[in-house]
Amino acid sequence: MLYQLPNGKVINLSIEEYLDLTNEDIQYLISIDFGEHIRDPFKGSAVEKNTKETIYDFEFLSSDDEDINNITSDEDPFDDIVDLSDNLDM
């Protein structure tokens, strides 16, 4: 994440580093003139990256789907398939 110091400069920190940041750390970073001035407010944002993230929800199961593991032996799961091999004689 980007964090702006009181002097206007911006530094890149992880979430853990940000949570561990103290006032003394901020004063030290200002004293060594650490960071950079950023003119683009969208620097490092999702607007610049232009990538799509695909999220798969494996926990979702539609309630209208049949349970394919619950087929009894007297049912033929492929009885709706039509065999067209006999009709190919031309």
Q: What would you note in describing this structure?
A:
By secondary structure, the protein is α+β, with helices and mostly antiparallel strands. It has one domain (1-64). It contains 3 helices and 2 strands. It has a two-stranded antiparallel sheet with strand order 1-2. Strand 1 (2-4) and strand 2 form a beta hairpin. The chain starts with a strand and ends in a 41-residue tail after the last helix.
List keywords for this structure.
7% strand; 3 helices; alpha+beta; 90 residues; two-stranded antiparallel ribbon
Structural topology:
Blueprint: E1 2-4, E2 10-12, H1 15-19, H2 23-31, H3 46-49
Antiparallel strand pairs: 1-2
- Rg from C-alpha positions? 30 Å
Q: Per the principal axes of the C-alpha atoms, what is the gross shape?
A: elongated
Strand order of the largest sheet: 1-2
Question: From the helix content, strand content and strand pairing, which structural class follows?
Answer: alpha+beta
Give the N-terminus to C-terminus distance in angstroms.
70 Å
Low-confidence stretches: none
Element-by-element helix/strand order: EEHHH
Q: TL;DR?
A:
The chain is built from three helices and two strands; from the N terminus they run ββααα. The protein has one domain (about 1-65).
